[in-house]
User: Fold these one by one.
Assistant:
Number 1:
Amino acid sequence: MGAGALPTPEEFRTVVDGLDGTQNALVRADMVFFETAHGGAVFATGSITYGMSLGHNNYDNNISTITLNVVNRFLDPRPFVMPAEA
């Protein structure tokens, strides 16, 4: 994550150096993907930081690539396949 991305306010009591995403491992963007019944799937991100990351380096970054791959797969008419239970 880059400069300007901060943890949520409840995670810190005062503003000090080292809070932004270039120095703080708590600043992150979690994501999840899973297949659902009847050929569906879910992709979700758990942070506004994910969206803030899209434009980094003129959109030439891992988050933009992941997002493009997800959108292209969801546009593909082939149904998603649920993995076999372990």
Number 2:
Amino acid sequence: MSRLSSAALPQLRGAAKPAYDRDATEIGVVHFGPGAFHRAHQAFYFDELLARDPRWAISAVSLKSPGVRDALEPQDGLYTLVELEAETKLRVIGAIREVLVAPETPSRVLARLASPHVRLVTLTITEKGYCLDGAGVLDSAHPDVFHDLTAPDEAPKSAIGWLVAGLALRRAAGLPGLTVLSCDNLADNGVRLRNAVQAFAGALDAGLAAWIEAECRFPRTMVDSITPATDDALRARVLAATGVEDAWPIQREAFVQWVVEDVMRPDAPDLAPVGVSLTDDVGGWERAKLRLLNGPHSTLAYAGLLRGHTTVAEAMNDPELAGFVRAMMLEDIAPTLTPPAGLDLHAYAEAVLKRFRNPAIRHQLAQIAWDGSQKLPFRILGTIADALGAGRSVDRLVVPLAAWMRFVEMRTREGEKIVDPLAGPLAEVATAGGGVERFLALTSVFPSTLAADPRFRRPLEAAYARLGADPTTALSAA
């Protein structure tokens, strides 16, 4: 049995291969955090770009674990991407030319950051990787940040420390700055990253901070694609399809989206031809995702669970529920949005519905239902407030809230733990008998002005009553 590698590519079957000469490519991107999402998302886009421009291969840097390096190094950085759809597609991604483990080879990481060929840094390090405090600014007391600030002659431990160390080397060498793209789901990610880098640099060298401000760009971004974890079943599937063993293949849905604020440096890659949306309004795209994707997702979760479904695709096979969600998206949510240039709300809504119906993705409704007290204010309440402000009905928009209330009561009756930061107070509400009045008293979820508004309360109470009487027919009256 052959292992995936450059030498094994000729014998590979059933998968698309890199459409370029890998040996002719040049590393122009340093990426921190080469986990599954990066390899399914940004590396996919750069794989497309390399067929047009060979200057944008990736040096992937793991900040701690050698796992990705150990899996991909024997494979020459190659891995299989499996696009999950009714008709599954496989392709080998060749964009990653090297994987470095920062604590093991700090000099190589710094050399890459200081290379004149590198003009872009990307990051997928999760929210905690930015070492921010509760106010969203750099936490100088964070152990990794504290180490990097007090021991600047040692190898950094934080992503911010590595970035600033690399930028300091570029400044000393007379090289230009970099475009730095945070690709994590963090509100105003580019702004927060820039502020953290500036704060760190300013604590070391005010001149360096001023140079970074003048020379570097930190665009906001938005990313989207469901990426299930790799398991042995996926490895076996790839082996059967290709005839080649892959230690760490990646799977994701066919839908993939990358939105980047159009403020990159002139020497940054031209990403638009490979499907990246460049915009001056990332916030508009984020609101559309939050309201047209995340809000309906929660609706499917709570209403679907009440109706006996377990996955998103299963819930979408319920004609009444699917029709309700579609009507809510197009008739109630879309009118609250002002789309940025390039975003067709109707087409986006239909694309979301197609994603929900994807039979190859088993997205558990119970998992989506977690943390409702934290998610619903952002996913639903803003839409409701805008609809009320415009004098529109909220009869459908209150249904996910009523379904959440009934879901909490159901889980409490069944003796199941509620996965939510407010699990204790929610269980107390449900144990006391539930009811709209008790839930609305949770002021950390429902603003008091909204809770007291009869235009909101009356339809919410009606939806709650319908769902309590018969959740299998309650949607038809909404």
Number 3:
Amino acid sequence: MTTLASGTTASRDDLARDALTVLQPGFTGTTAPDWLLRRLGEGLASVGLFGRNIASPDQLAALTARLRAEREDVLVAIDEEGGDVTRLEVRTGSSFPGNHALGAVDDVELTREVARELGSRLAACGVNFNWAPSADVNSDPENPVIGVRSFGADPDLVARHTAAYVTGLQSAGVIACTKHFPGHGDTAVDSHLALPRIDAAAPLLAERELAPFRAAIAAGTRAVMSAHILVPALDPDRPATLSRGVLTDLLRGELGYDGLIVTDGMEMQAVAGTYGIERGSVLAIAAGADAICVGGGLADDETVRRLRDALVAAVRSGELPEERLADAAERVRRLARWAATTARPGPAATADDEVGLRAARRALKRTGDSFTPLTEAPYVAAFTPAANIAVGDETPWGVAAELLRLLPGTRTGSFAGPDAGHAVLEAAGRRRVVAVVRDEHRHPWMASALDTLLTARPDTIVVEMGVPQAAPRGALHIATHGAARVCGRAAAEVIAGAPEA
């Protein structure tokens, strides 16, 4: 037995089991490694999946079935937002537009329907926990990590669509994990790379950032993910993930939330680079978090062992109250029991773009006085910025593949940097140019390339697949409000004049 600072006693095995229970680790490969299965037998209750773990719906269903053979009520989590951030369709692009497109349509029933269909596909593959939706209000258009992952810049719009998404996802038996509390929208730094800071005053935070989270709580979201951001008005010293004032006093106390609190990835530099993952995990649980997400980058048994041992050592030293760790572990187990009795995995789902494509078509915004659809194969120039870590660079995007299907012979190239405009003109020759951009307003080189291109070829068609903040230009400008595969298809249909099937 181990004597704790609180005067209670707990066996070493009980502490280790509780410490494992609060972890949400990842792994590499498309089959469950032996170490992961062993940890499930020792108390691990959650597993996180990423694009590297998924080859097909059938393979994913077999993987989750193998996990449940070891622990029937395991929480299988995934980062499946639809739109730009997809893991189910990481190699093809998503069948569903993301939040920004849904916000542009502003039909809450459509958002609910999309989330329900997405949830049904996850459940069919045995996934019962989704790190989505993003409830961030994209109030800073320069935000490098949220962007089209947000429903928009208006708090009321974001709130009603967040609630609809939560309702739709959970109606399919999949846990919604609303993120990134208390709101990551007003940041100019990517928390994967460094610690962002929001200097808004408390009244503005309450009116803007917190509104969607209130709506998600009212809608019954069963999980909330914390953000690795410093908000001095709430806590001048520690980022939200490590702040008792943010997680316990605000989220649990003021907002009355009683579900699971999970951290964003602990290997992200906003925490790992300042506190380290072991220290950060201890501080997060002490602050009120119930689950530690890790595994996007660090995905091995050694990471699990390090975090387990750090939590046990913190309890034994009195730094982390044993009751807090036990409470966190029980919240995880309670949610796992709910999911086990609610989600009913069925046969792997087959792709059906109907709901997502319908939403993507409705999200398009066209600008241009007169446009005659193309009948000859164009040259598609993709102005390609560096992808943020959340989106990744594995997932294809753009309109070239869809235009090739509609206009055989279509050619394409990817361009970046100060000479991109001239390079496109040389590569395109006499072909009509379709320029595809992503957040033109955030990339001066991209805007300059368009200047060069449009000066020489004013008949160029411009497709904006990021946040449409820059002024529309070109013979035809199409804002898709996201780079999902269905967004590219919807834009290609307009360019080629293809009738909607």
Number 4:
Amino acid sequence: MDTTLPTGNKWNNRLWQQALQPMLLADASGKVAAANRSFEQLMGWALAKDRQYTVLPFMGWGLPDWQQLCVEVQKNAVVNVTTSICMNETEGAIPISVHINLLNDDREGLYLLQITDLREKLANEALAQSADEKYRYLFLNNPLALILWDLETLQIIDVNYAACKEYGYARRNFVQLSMKDILPAENLPDFLKFATDFAQTDKVKKKGVWIHQNAAGEKMWMETVSHKIVYDNRQAVMAMLNNVTEKLALEQRLANEQLLRQQQITEAVIAAQEKERSEISQELHDNVNQLLIASRIYVESARQHPEREDNLLSQASGFILKSIEEIRKLSKALITPLEAEMSLQEGLEKLTADIREFKSLQIESRLTDFDETDLSYPFKINLYRIAQEQFNNIIKHSGAKKVTFILQRNDNYVFFTMQDNGIGFDVNSQRKGIGINNMLRRAEMYNGVLEIDSAPGKGCKIHIQFKLR
């Protein structure tokens, strides 16, 4: 058959052939009167000029179907039909839509079929549906709890499986709730203000921690990131929620423990101060006071016995000199142990020298080549006080004749060791005294770990490891 229009048709044959849309002309019996080149291109083959075709096998219609369409076109002028067209045995059928109207021409009963290939449209729709299904899958299976809620009504629109598990609701019941239902009554006014402000602001994301309640009525602290979105032509919020109840409880416990630790340190410092004051008071009473009393007695005796005045005043002078020496020793204990120009090593060496001067104690110190340039002054004072405290413990309780004192370090740690050959004690049974507790607290103040190694008759070894970084 010819692809040109029938003679006498008002359509321009040139326009007919150049039209991009596939088109056919058919009569009321379905016989094809003409087909343009776009139709042949759609089919993938040329219509034979010596053969007559009908639209029925192309469209998969029976004659009654075509006749019914013709009646509808005569009534309504235009009919749109979705069907499929059979191309060939290899390609099979493809989806199409057919726009049918009665051609206004001198010949009666001639119908124009304008054909649209639906393959690309359906493919795009399938792709969009596939993308929606993927997003739906990601929403439902996200490990974080997700709640989608209406920003105006506060009604919950959708939730994922993680939210159902977190809150203890079945999904079909969860989506029947409002955000008001998962908020404690005392927090509702703040949330209503948040929703109002969020709706009016240009911001699309807000973060915060809200108290929610689950199906059992238990409160949960939920770290929330709220994203403002448009869903079904209405303002909505996609809330991503993370339950931080246990995290906050742990932080509170740690804060309480830190406060308790600080209280213990403060108590230890106060106890050490009271101990020091008590010792100074005792020294003043037992030594200085007694020496001054003896001096006064000798002075009074010198007044009463002029013949022995020189001897008695000489004795009184000796007691006064001893009192001065005792006061000097007490003053040393009270003043800051390290002067600004004095290093820790120099301060410790001076401490050991003072102890050797007044006590018959052999002290072996290993302090040379100790780099203290990067150590803070408070840390060095702390080390000095620990050494001073342990020397005091050794002198008072151990009966030791020899003490080994070692101070070492590397890039990450400072190592402090004091060992004596005294009577020792049972570490497991003996209660820690104020002196040891004071050293323990001082060590903890600077990330130090204190270890005590002692046994009856075996002396005592104190080792502290301070972590610098």
